[in-house]
Amino acid sequence: MKTIVAGAFLLSFVALLPIGCGKAVNPKTTAETMTSSAVVTLCDTNFAAQTKQGVVLVDFFATWCGPCQQQGPIVEQVADQLKGRAMVGKLDVDAAPAIAQKFGINGIPALIVFRNGVPVKQFVGVTEADALVAAITSALAIPPQRKP
């Protein structure tokens, strides 16, 4: 009987956990290692919904990748600069290999600007903020398609 009660308690506790990209929050994480609040963490469960409308910059990265670590602060800078105009997200290619494969990611860091779910510009390698902002601004300026 104790096992059943303990199991029920555990299940009710797990049900209260937030649903996201399956990343556990480490309470010892420092401010330097946290992603900017302006950058959205993307994964298999939210990628399509987050990229289907508007202009979105996605940083395809891996935690073990040195150049990706260099790209991270640049992506955060772009997110802060464009807050309210375009979304910026990060996708760990090790956690979501099917999405990386779908978009032909063979080298990282790779950054893709999406407009309404469609890739409009891609960068491979560490890319400066000015180039990313210019690509996003250009995607924002594309007139919407009229339906016949």
Pick out its properties:
148 residues, alpha/beta, Glutaredoxin, 5-stranded mixed sheet, 5 helices, globular
Q: Can you give a write-up of this model?
A:
The protein has 148 residues and is α/β, with parallel strands linked by helices. The chain has a single domain, classed as Glutaredoxin, CATH 3.40.30. The chain is 36% helix and 20% strand. It has 5 helices and 5 strands, in the order αβαβαβαββα. It has a 5-stranded mixed beta sheet. β4 and β5 form a beta hairpin. α3 crosses α5. The longest helix is centred in the middle third of the chain and has 16 residues. It is globular. The N terminus is likely disordered.
Helix/strand layout:
Blueprint: H1 2-15, E1 39-42, H2 47-51, E2 55-61, H3 66-81, E3 87-92, H4 97-102, E4 110-115, E5 118-124, H5 129-141
Helix pairs in contact: 3-5
Query: What average pLDDT do the residues reach?
Result: 81
| CATH superfamily grouping | Glutaredoxin
Give the oligomeric state.
Answer: single chain
> Could you tell me the number of beta strands?
5
Write a brief structural summary:
This protein is of the alpha/beta class and 148 residues long.
